[in-house]
Amino acid sequence: MAKKQKKRKQRHREGFDSFIRKTIDEIQKETKYQDYKITFGLSKKEMESEDGQSLAATISVDTTYLQAHITISPYLKRAYKKGDIQEVRRVLCHEVVHGRTQKLFNYAINRFAPKEEVRSAWETLTEEYSRIVYDLVYNK
Predict the structure, then answer these.
(1) What backbone phi and psi angles, to 5 degrees, belong to 114?
(2) DSSP assignment string, 8-19
(3) Rounded CA gap, 41 and 62, in Å?
(4) Range of the domain at 99
(5) Over the chain (140 residues), what is each successive 10-residue block's mean pLDDT?
(6) What total number of domains does the chain contain?
(7) Of 10, 107, 115, 139, which one is least surrounded by beta carbons within 10 A?
(8) 17: domain CATH number?
(9) Strands (E), the chain
(10) What does pTM read for this prediction?
(11) Burial (CB count within 10 angstroms: exposed 0-12, middle 13-18, buried 19+), residue 127
(12) Secondary structure of residue 66 in the 3-state scheme
């Protein structure tokens, strides 16, 4: 690969990474969720849920040590490159909100409700909350 192309690719990567970091920080600040350390990384492969649905991102949450890690799919990077900033922000809002609702999910799946019913309710709650967060943060 030519030197110029490599530099341009690296600059674009840094731009994407700094945009993701800035967006996560904004969402955390606006939702008073700064007690968690949230890191992120880019998956080299497209991602799927347990039931085969395409995923734009996932989050792993450690509620004991107040840490989370968001894994971003290539889909989200393509959206960023196309200039679909709203989509990237919506997905990141959704993932950060998953962090906020993780404890609820953990408790619920250890009860008597079927896991898929709980997961469905958790996704709905997360999506509703993430839409509120998105409006608060980006539609002031």
Answers:
(1) -60, 140
(2) HHHHHHHHHHHH
(3) 16
(4) 3-138
(5) 53 79 93 88 94 93 90 96 95 91 76 78 83 86
(6) 1
(7) 139
(8) 3.40.390
(9) 37-42, 47-48, 54-55, 57-62, 67-72
(10) 0.74
(11) middle
(12) coil
